[in-house]
Input
Amino acid sequence: MDQINDRILQELSGDGRLSNTDLSERVGLSPSACLRRVQDLERRGVIKGYRAVLDRKQTGGDFVAYIGVGLANHSKASQEQFERAMQAAREVKECHNVSGTIEYILRVECADIDAYKYFHTEILGQVPHVNAITSYIVMGSPKDGRG
Output
């Protein structure tokens, strides 16, 4: 990695739809040199993909919660079972295995509080070994750089 690759990544993180011509101008390279670098970053897995940033209000996922989840059983099998269940749950947008007093932090998007209650009770609450659920409801997001 060098400063030019860092600039390329910074620019693409802000706008993954930049044309190669615009990107090359912003980072100070010829279009062919810029394209070679981007392709190399993709090939090496530094750039894992591109995605669209959605307006949650228009897609029905305006209710957002972060959830701390503790497991009663700390075995590898119970963690794998939990992770499979979260992969299958469409409301779960992120699932992170963390250190500390809990095992997981989830980012959940639902249409509203009723949909969240259903997820909390009928999906998350039914997963074996879940023994602690702490919800943090997002009131606003003054900074959100996930992209």
About this structure: The mean pLDDT is 93. The chain has two domains: 3-43, 56-137. Strands lie at 63-71, 92-97, 104-110, 130-137.
